[in-house]
UniProtKB/TrEMBL annotation:
It comes from Pedobacter agri. It comes from the Bacteria. The chain crosses the membrane at residues 25-44, 56-74. Keywords: Membrane, Transmembrane, Transmembrane helix. InterPro entries: DUF3098. This is DUF3098 domain-containing protein. Pfam families: DUF3098.
Length: 76
């Protein structure tokens, strides 16, 4: 019984592919900008600490930014 000699390892043509596309990265940058805007709105300058913008609007903008970031990651 003769043993057959293998001709070496098979080299596959491996292409360096990124996990995300250019569109995913653009959407992620937009979501980071939305989150940053929410934190700027939350910071404010002067005035009442319990006004509408700081207690309701800014946290909703931040949450929307995080949700948009999740969408940007999951978009195929």
């Amino acid at each position: 019984m003769a043993l057959e000699k293998k001709s070496g390892p098979v080299v596959k043509d491996v292409k360096s592919e990124l996990v995300f596309t250019k569109k995913n990265y653009q959407l992620l940058l937009i979501s980071m900008a939305i989150v940053a805007l929410g934190f700027v709105l939350m910071m404010g300058t002067e005035g009442d600490i319990y006004d509408f913008r700081r207690t309701l609007l800014a946290p909703l903008v931040v949450l929307f930014g995080f949700a948009f970031g999740i969408y940007a990651i999951l978009k195929k």
